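Email to the structure team, subject: Family 43 glycosylhydrolase model.

Hi all, the expression group asked for a predicted structure before they design truncation constructs. Nothing fancy, just the tokens so they can compare against earlier work. One-line instruction: predict Family 43 glycosylhydrolase, return tokens.
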Amino acid sequence: MRDPFVLKQESEGCYYLYGSTDPNIWKGKAIGFDVYKSRDLEDWEGPFPAFRPEPDFWSDTNYWAPEVHAYDGKYYMFATFKAEGVCRGTQILVADQPVGPFIPHSDGPVTPHDWECLDGTLYVDEDGTPWIVFCHEWVQVKNGTVCASRLSPELDRAIGEPILLFSALDASWVDAVKGGAGYVTDGPYAYRCNNGELLLLWSSFRQGRYAQGIARSVSGGILGPWVQEPEPIYENDGGHGMIFRTFEGKILLTLHAPNSTPDERPVFIELAEEDGRLRYV
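Reply from the structure team: attached below.
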């Protein structure tokens, strides 16, 4: 599994684990997304088929990075899709329960149709406005970026033009991939600290290895400006992470490591938070 994402379901006292689960996620015909269920993050039930495309679904490859968010009484999956001759993008799916089945909610991707995009995540600001935060991919722009777009209250379309938050080279620790071909931005995820500071997790490469970085919003809002932490929080060839709290109150970072297929697995790392700073326990 790549790109692990955990949904904590209070009413059931359990966790749902989603991720990129196709046997070959890089090429060939995609199958869908699976989900696992656990009460202790150690013993897992599943896999259960969370999403399987209908025959007329537009995308047939690169099913990546599903995130599931509880919002307004339903469960919304933000997931990356692609098809031959169509730009990669994040579409929003919906279901009545965390295990699915998820069905298309937005009319195709809500990211710009002429941009190669991936890894959309939901962020709801303090006014209750939903946003999608996503990456404009380095394969198209070389210096990958993280952008945000407002979403409709129904989460079925973007409203207005994307807003640039930062680019890969804004972080001093980022190195180029594939002999200088470009600079990667992957997997944004927003985390609000106890003191009100807003962090944004995202991933890139350092010295040839996948790494988990953190940006900090000066304003405390999603539009920043964003300041990059000088060092990744994890640089041992793992990333595309998110943070959640366990039922016992622990703060866990989950990411996949190593970054090689088919060896990648979800990893759970306990963190402590002090004055808006995160560190390993």
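The longest helix spans residues 138-141. The chain has a mean pLDDT of 97. Ping us if the truncation boundaries need rechecking.
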